[in-house]
Design a protein that fits this description.
Layout lengths: L2 E6 L4 E8 L2 E9 L1 H5 L6 H23 L8 E7 L3 H17 L4 E5 H12 L7 E6 L4 E8 L2 E7 L5 H11 L6 H9 L29 H16 L6 H26 L4 E5 L6 H14 L2 E3 L10 H13 L2 E2 L20 E2 L2
Parallel strand pairs: 1-4, 4-5, 6-9, 9-10
Antiparallel strand pairs: 1-2, 2-3, 6-7, 7-8, 11-12
Helix pairs in contact: 2-3, 4-10, 5-6, 5-7, 5-8, 6-8, 8-9
């Protein structure tokens, strides 16, 4: 049984958790959303400062809540890629310091691998191979999970990530930041079929469309033109109907690609991960389509959809149990492909 203290500071959530294999012992999150809301989005320098101010207290609270002492911790982990460089440096530096101080191995974790492992926390019996539909503010990918650290990206967005599109459309509708939860709530009150919006198909040179890649800039532009047309006609914006139609377009697009990808690769399980995995429209659409095709879909609990340290700890515990550790001179990366996860580790001597 491997117990890891993990730190997540890739963006605007300061989080510390202790995970024993696939069981969460403690999971503390300090959200910065109230701070960044006044700016309409995440300010990297502000995020880094907040991480620095709160991380020590969160480590203490995580240890206390888990009712453990440092002799019972097997390793210290932190997110090292991808993310905001300044924010990543705060978490990584704290983790390395704790690792040296308590003579524990250090593990640098890939943020997207953490989102994949979020579903293991509620479905500990889950085993590869399976398909992960990872949808967040910065990433939208279809990932073939073959084993711990062994991944193949089968589909991706060519422009905006799905979560980014939600935030931009929320701004068009004057809903504020963050946009995803607000659109999700409004969509429940609107008509999703009132305004047909594009699904973001990617054309192929030889004709037809890419089966797994997607684009979300087009649907964002379509919403912009729709709002401009309605305003020019002097009409009040039917915000709930626009939100529902937009969300339906995104959910339909992601579901079609995920189901096609899983079917083509003979994968009978789809795992959802990332902040947009909390979206009720996407969950319902994907669950219904998968049920019709005999495909199992696993949704992480809502508290593990957004950035958290429990998912990072779960991934780190798996790596550590396999003898994978990270060197203390490991750096952070603003961008790093999910296929390069194993570049963060070496086998323990």
């Amino acid at each position: 049984m491997t117990t890891v203290l993990s730190i997540e500071t890739s963006c605007d959530e300061t989080a510390v958790a202790i995970v024993n294999n696939r069981k969460v012992c403690s999971n503390i999150i300090a959200s910065q959303i109230p701070i960044h809301t006044q700016y309409g989005g995440v300010v990297p320098e502000v995020a880094s400062r907040q991480h620095l101010l709160t991380i020590t207290d969160l480590v203490d609270r995580a240890i206390q809540e888990a009712n453990l002492d440092w002799t019972e911790i097997d390793g210290i982990a932190a997110t090292v890629a991808p993310g905001l460089v300044g924010a990543l440096l705060i978490g990584m530096s704290a983790a390395k310091t704790l690792a040296i101080l308590h003579d524990k191995p250090f593990l640098g974790v890939h943020h997207l691998e953490g989102h994949i492992y979020a579903s293991y926390l509620s479905a500990p019996e889950l085993q590869p191979p399976f398909l992960c539909l990872l949808v967040s503010g910065g990433h939208t990918s279809l990932i073939h999970v073959k084993d711990c650290g062994v991944y193949a990206e089968l589909g991706a967005t060519r422009d905006d990530a799905a979560g980014e599109a939600f935030d931009k459309v929320a701004r068009l509708l004057n809903l504020g930041y963050p946009g995803g939860p607000k659109i999700d709530r409004l969509a429940a009150e609107g008509n999703p079929n009132l305004y047909p919006l594009p699904e973001g198909n990617i054309s192929l040179h030889g004709g037809g469309f890419h089966p797994y890649d997607s684009s979300f800039s087009g649907v964002k532009t379509a919403v912009l033109r729709l709002t401009q047309k309605l305003q020019a006609a002097g009409k009040e914006l039917p915000v709930a109907d626009i939100a529902a139609s937009f969300q339906h377009s995104i959910a339909r697009s992601l579901t079609k690609r995920a189901i096609a990808c899983a079917s083509d690769y003979g994968l009978n399980t789809i795992v959802l991960g990332g902040g947009v995995a909390a979206n009720r429209g996407l969950r319902a659409t994907l669950a219904a389509a998968a049920r019709d095709r005999g495909i199992q879909v696993l949704f992480p609990p809502l508290e593990y959809c957004t950035d958290n340290a429990a998912m990072i700890g779960c991934a780190a515990a798996e790596h550590l149990s396999r003898g994978h550790v990270s060197p203390l001179d490991l750096g952070v990366h603003s961008r790093l492909s999910i296929m390069e996860v194993m570049s963060l580790y070496r086998h323990a001597s």
